[in-house]
Write a structure and sequence with these properties.
single chain; alpha/beta; Quinone Oxidoreductase, Chain A, domain 1; Rossmann fold; 2 domains; seven-stranded mixed β-sheet; six-stranded parallel β-sheet; globular; binds NADP nicotinamide-adenine-dinucleotide phosphate; NADPH:quinone reductase; YIM1/Zinc_Alcohol_DH_Fams; oxidoreductase; ADH-like_N
């Protein structure tokens, strides 16, 4: 099969389109014929091996998994002996273990769910990781109806889902984005928009009940100034470009400890990939409450360009690789 492979950590130039063997599957695993793969900042992190701390999980000297990409949408091609929830021919989406920038990928059954009937494979691949992260951030922050919620990075991959999901939960949304995305962020449901190229988030002294920080590049002191005394900040964005060792993830890790010393609550969000959340998203998508926003779709051979575009840091919604 054809796949985008890297043998060493580095920039997108290290990626090659190669013929490799199809992944094999174990008892609890599923072989997916990939139709589309989502591109997210995690791909850049695994490709570069930066921040260095990530190498403890993905390979100290060289990548343990040669094929990049985790978010996947496709058709089940084979199932292991103990797979009960999925069958050959099912259209699925979720997260895979063996790399989704490839014609076939191996996934664990609990990380896949049936694809929403009203989505294309491109849209489903765009949803897999980013929407689950947005949903879990909202739950971790305990968003309730009537609350005022500020979302940074509202026009990006996670943020564009978070805006729509907070509306489903009954919150009012102020989206923070750059000038070119104001219309997009309004169109997906934001009640108000702050253009961060002109104003800071504390522009008029407003205080929010919840801040969902996907941009990850504003100082904690600024986020706290814009938060109500008993409000919650969900720290999602890791600031992946800064810090050689931890890349900004220390803020998420330290959040519970810092929370002990103040009335405001900080929670570091770590997305957990579970089919139950995909199924909840499926019903919201099929009812029309949530729709993925896709910025660009690249063919498999142009995956390095897709990752370069994402790394520039300003996608409007999601970037997808079509296989
Ligand atoms: N914790 C977890 O489990 C988890 C899971 C998934 C992703 N993440 C992290 O979450 C972050 C966001 O992921 P993503 O997929 O949404 O990335 P993305 O698609 O690149 O979106 C990031 C957005 O941030 C915006 N932005 C940049 N500077 C900003 C600022 N000062 N104020 C407001 N918005 C700003 C950018 O748009 P503009 O053009 O408007 O600047 C862009 O739309 C990444 O750091 C990623 O690693 C964490």
């Amino acid at each position: 099969m054809k796949a985008i492979v890297h043998d060493v950590y580095g920039p997108a130039d290290v990626l090659e389109l190669r013929d490799i063997d199809k992944p094999s599957i174990g008892d609890d695993e599923v072989l997916v014929e990939v139709r589309a793969a989502g591109v997210d900042p995690g791909v850049w992190i695994f490709m570069t091996g930066r921040p260095m701390a990530v190498r403890l999980a993905v390979g100290l000297r060289r990548p343990k998994v040669a094929v990049l990409g985790r978010a996947v949408a496709g058709v089940v091609a084979a199932v292991g002996a103990s797979v009960t929830r999925l069958h050959v021919g099912d259209e699925v989406y979720g997260t895979c273990e063996s790399g989704s920038f490839a014609e076939y990928a191996m996934a664990r059954q609990h990380r896949l769910a049936p694809k929403p009937a009203n989505l294309t494979f491109d849209q489903a691949a765009a949803t897999a990781i980013s929407a689950v992260t947005a949903l879990q951030s909202i739950r971790d922050a305990r968003v309730q109806a009537g609350q005022r919620v500020l979302i940074t990075g509202a026009g990006g991959g996670v943020g564009s889902f978070a805006v729509q999901l907070v509306k489903v939960y009954g919150g009012s949304v102020t989206g923070v984005c750059s000038t070119s995305k104001i219309e997009l962020v309004r169109s997906i449901g934001a009640d108000d928009v702050i253009d961060y190229t002109r104003y800071e988030i504390d522009r008029d002294g407003a205080q929010y009940d919840v801040i969902i920080d996907t941009a990850g590049n504003r100082p904690l002191s600024l986020l706290r100034r814009a938060l109500a005394p008993r409000g919650t900040i969900a720290l999602v964005g890791g600031g992946h470009a800064e810090g050689r060792i931890m890349g900004g993830f220390q803020r998420q890790m330290a959040a519970p400890l810092i929370s002990l010393f103040m009335t405001q609550r900080l929670c570091g969000v770590t997305a957990r990939e579970r089919h139950e959340d995909l199924e909840e998203l499926t019903s919201l998508i099929e009812s029309g409450s949530v729709t993925p926003v896709i910025d660009r779709v690249y063919p498999l051979a142009d995956t390095p360009d897709a990752i370069r575009y994402l790394a520039e840091g300003h996608p409007a919604g999601k970037v997808v690789v079509r296989v």
